[in-house]
Structures are given as C-alpha cells and as structure tokens.
C-alpha cells in the first residue's frame, strides 16, 4: 500500500517545522557550507546542528560531501531555495494584512489603546 500524497506532504512540512532547519536551508540557499561555517549563524551547539543536518539529509533536502576533515553541505535542489522565497512572500502578505487590520482598528477606535496580553504566572 502506498502512502497518500497528502501524508507525504505533511511529513515534508514537519521536517521544515524547526527554526534551526529553516535557518540551515536559508544558509545553504546562498552557497554550500561546512558545519563550522554555519555554527555562528545558527547559534546552537554543534551537536544540535549535526542532529538537524541529519534530519535534513534523511529527508533528502541536503547532501553532504566529505572534504578532508570537513563535510560540506548543499541543497539537493534549487527548488528548496524557491520554496523558502515563496514562504517569505506568503508571510509578508499575511503580516502586511495583519498590520493593515491593526491600522484600520486604530483609525476606527482611536480612543482605545490595544495592549498585548500578559501571560499569567503559573
């Protein structure tokens, strides 16, 4: 029995559902990197970065090529970089829409001040 496409897509997006993995893919969208080159950019421990790279490799999104004592990582396809650009465009539209709603609300109710909710201790 084959896995339905919608389930495969959900698993794909779960793979993308980690901030470190997204940052790694963004870096690799620019050029190939070694772990040492990525560490200062992702601001996590080397072991955490290695784990996230392993997840991306298992998902087939990045490749690894050994060069002496270093491993150089690259995107498997430029389509991964395109996906990140599309996601950025979607987020920009969503956030712009939300900013527009906030502006409209302030214009409609200038006497009310919108204050962010504070989280309760507990």
Automatic annotation (TrEMBL):
Gene3D superfamilies: Winged helix-like DNA-binding domain superfamily/Winged helix DNA-binding domain. Keywords: DNA-binding, Transcription, Transcription regulation. It comes from the Bacteria. Residues 1-95 form the HTH arsR-type domain. SUPFAM superfamilies: Winged helix' DNA-binding domain (SSF46785). SMART domains: HTH_ARSR. InterPro entries: ArsR-like_HTH, HTH_ArsR_DNA-bd_dom, Metal_resp_trans_reg, WH-like_DNA-bd_sf, WH_DNA-bd_sf. PANTHER family: ARSENICAL RESISTANCE OPERON REPRESSOR ARSR-RELATED. This is Metalloregulator ArsR/SmtB family transcription factor. It comes from Sporichthya brevicatena.
